[in-house]
Amino acid sequence: MSPSPEIDPSRQPPRAGRVLLLLSAAAVGAVALAFFGIQSRARSLAEVANWTDAQAVPTVRVVAPQRGPGEDALVLPGTVSAFDMSSLYPRASGYVAAWHADIGARVTKGEVLATISAPDLDQQLAEAEAQLGQLGAAVQQAQANADLGQATDTRTARLVVQGWSSKEQGDTDRLTAASRTAALAVAKANVTTQEAVVGRLKELTRFEKIVAPFDGVVTARNVDVGDLVAAGGTSGKPLFQVADIHRMRVYVNVPQAYLAALKPGIAATLHLPGAKATVDAKLVTTSNAVAESSRTATVELDADNADGRLWPGAFAEVQFHIPSDPDRLTIPMTAVVFGAHGMQVAAVDGSGRVTVKPVELGRDLGERVQVESGLSAGDRLIDNPLESTQTGDTVTVADGPGKA
Question: What's the whole-model pTM score?
Fold first, then answer.
């Protein structure tokens, strides 16, 4: 075997020194990682703290009070009615012989709308007139008997005085004359009674013609030739309906809160569905009573209808023009807080500080409400404030200061 080569100790680094070098490098790296980790965590914690502080100050939107218009517009549903409306029922029983006016016809007062054939009524009138003639003849006969009785009594009384006739005969003739005078009075009373019967029947025969009670338009016809109609009732449908539409009445149920402002003379505008044009109206009277079920009162308006645009029974939106104070402030309903302390608003000053103010509200205008007191025109109010908002809170205004 050949001898092994000898290793030079000077060429090999010591093993302990190399290990120490590696441990030193690892320690330096660990220290560097720990330093940078701690620094990053501290930066993150600072950012979280800043974000938390920023979130603690809420961002709000502010609104400003506005001055109200010169009038308050109150819009309510209304019902249009004819100025006069008449339902015509039969007062004579019989068959309809003819009708002369259909729906939509313009009629004048006294114009015949239909004719009823009532032979029974005509026959009753003829019999009553004949009986009146008989009673008239009876009056003539009673008058003649009364005159004869009076003459006989006068003659007998003279003979009794002269002794040519007995007193008994004189009494008999006197009483006979009185009886005949009474019979004449009865006959005349019978004639008067019969004349009343004839007058009533004649009046009923006038109802054989259905006439218009006033100038207007026929809005309903529920009769045809040959129909049997009966007098003496208002059940069922009327024969005709006639409406006076030269001027219309409009009825509106107004909530109790607005009744104090609605006085006779208040102007209004009628908006009809499907029509672009409007109609002017004026409040003329109120019912002076509030319905317990709805807490509303009925008011009546009048409107000219010369062009016939308004129809009876139509629906209309009635816009009342109520005079209002133009200096009165209004705010959105969303700016009001309804809390345990009443109505309040949250005002924001220039530094973002909140001041909660109690306010007294007036009329509800829908999306806005009037403010009677507790507010000035330069206030900036938080829109949709939280119920937990308190005086002294700090907020950030998102869209800048509100404009009055």
Answer: 0.60
